[in-house]
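Methods: example folding runs. The two proteins below were folded one after another, and each record is reproduced exactly as written to the output file, sequence line first and structure-token line second.
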Amino acid sequence: MNFLNLVSGNTSPAKTIFSGVETNMTSVMDDDAQSVNSSIQVPAAPPPTGPNTVVGEQLPTADEINRHIIPVLKVLADVRTLQLAEPAASPELRKQIYEHALVSPEPVDLLASGEPPLLRTSRQMREESGLLFYSSNDFRLVVSQNQAENVTESLRRCLASSHNLKKLESMGHLEVEYHLSSSENIPAGKDDTEGECIELAVVLAGCGSRENQVSWRAVSTNFSDPAFGNNYLEWLAQSARLHVYSSMLVRDWEEAHHQRHSEASSETNADITERLRT
């Protein structure tokens, strides 16, 4: 069972960003599609004319256009056809395509329904672009109100796999959004071993996450902005409350990380996965 199932209550199988990757890939395209792609030709550009023509300008030949442009056009039509671009597509060109397709300006939600299609296309493309996706993006873990326990348990099970553990290690940054809805839903202090945020921090610290790799932020689902005509004093009180809760989350994370680091500075990935399974 994965993140999405536990949080939503759905018991049917669903893929998340930590799901397993199929190793037996089907053929990329059938013979008809290959013949259509191979028949694509770009005509040579007409000679330049007019007052802005540069004298002596060297225009690309039709073969050069076909060799460099056709692979990109194929990828834009269907990412699976990137395999057909070999050997025309240089490593530099392939890297640029991967960056364009995989690097997001916004944080990637860990509860999303699967990895990008490009990572599920073939084993070769996954090996070439997998590290780029995890190391070049920021990720966000949204802990919905009253669901921290479920998210923590799901994270513990997922990271019991060494494959998923490597994904977490390679992430550039992970932001945990802890959603609050009322004064009763308060993050637990360090002395409360049943505290939801403490347990989540312990799991992340126990998986070897770096201290500066994870940030914590409290979010209120009932936050009222005075710009929309709400009471300004109420807004100040809510802002102060969120600041206090965010500080508590950060403090708990720092303490959990320091404690775990001192206890298991020499622990390997195999030791971590074995501990999480038990």
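Second run, written to the same file directly after the first:
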Amino acid sequence: MGGGGNGSGVGPGWFDTANRRFEYQKDRRRPKRHDRTNPAQKWIFLLCAIPILIPAYREAKRSGWFHDRVAELPFPASGTVTVNNSVDPKSATSKIGVTAADANVVVQLFDRKTDVHVISVYVNRNEDVSVPVPPGTYRIKIIEGDKWHGPTTWFGTSTTYETVVRPMVFSRRTSRMIDLHRSPAGNLHTSINFANPKPLN
């Protein structure tokens, strides 16, 4: 009967087309949804990284990683000192010991009350010394670096400058020790000085 022919007109050909359309939709690449990063997360990451990045930067700086075009001068021998003219050598009955790490170092003692420079001790990298100092309470400042340029510009681009947080007391005939090897378990707490050290007169 003729009615059956109309039914075949929407038969296999139609289903093939529909099926191809379905497969195409299924195989299309759909763009991935990207979750927006909360700006606060970036700040949290940055704040967490700062305690790691700053010490790493300063370690690289004092180790001489940054280019320095200025001619290098011979660094004083370990145990060399620069002393304020007002200091009587006979009064130096205490001692300070300094152990240097991988950088040359100048350890300075300033009178806590007057902030007057009393003595500076020079120590070559990876060496240690012990020198006499007058009894007193001192603010300790530490200058480290790679190439020596003298007591005006210090170590040039490699200069790092810190102050020991707690004043150090030297009573008569006592000894104090400073070890500059950085360690999480260390007890020598320092604050960073962003200004350059003042030249020694």
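Comment on the second run: Residues 2-15, 17-26 have pLDDT under 50 and may be disordered.
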